[in-house]
Amino acid sequence: MAETLTVDRLEAWYGDSKVLHGMDFNIRAGEVVTLLGRNGAGKTTTLKAIMGLMERRAGSIRVDGAEIIAAAPYDIARKGLALCPEERGIFSSLSVRENLLLPPALAKGGMTIAQVLDLFPNLKERLDSQGTKLSGGEQQMLALGRILHTGARILLLDEPTEGLAPVIIQQIGRTIEKLKALGFTILLVEQNVAFASGLADRHYVVELGRVVDEIPGPELDARLDTLKTYLGL
Length: 233
Ligand code: ATP
Fold this sequence. Notes:
The protein is of the alpha/beta class. It is 31% helix and 29% strand. It has eight helices and ten strands.
């Protein structure tokens, strides 16, 4: 399978503080891949660096072979990448419909609002509600629906299960399975190992701004003790 996203020797800084020290990993088209690691390991920063949202970064990031390390965020979005941030980024003064329509459809083939609502039926009767009146789970679905509308094919999801009830986490898991079946490529940052283990083809373990291990999905259970050591559990 072709490599869709290739990250080589990626470095990134906040001001003078370097937090990514050479991240190396790749994702093939249609895969679900996780970044696992302790708080502060550099997972969110990696997603931000891929999207061009860090002031300073170095190394190489290729999308279908094309280099994007020096590209601006809007050009990266045009390549079909989108970030669903941990804090979800729902605009409180806008309705669900307005939140869905807000980002421009930068890449071709984005889902229509009707298709987004088929995927997230809970949002249908909430279309005219204010974004922040939604439950945490509905806000997460809105945040996901919004990036599907942009036409992105490579989805960077930052802890989509954070703070959600188990039943909602299951729903999010089923949605990710559907998106995989539809051919989306997904990079998932997770703290919830049980959730990640049921979904991902491969896992990368991140420590202090580097990938320190790669675990194939089927081997995760057998290597759970090692993983718990990495995660400090
Ligand atoms: P978490 O699950 O806690 O978000 P993470 O693995 O995603 O963890 P990052 O948020 O990428 O980790 O943080 C990596 C490092 O960068 C940490 O040492 C963190 O303190 C630092 N950091 C994060 N955001 C900033 C910022 N805006 N300014 C300066 N340093 C930051």
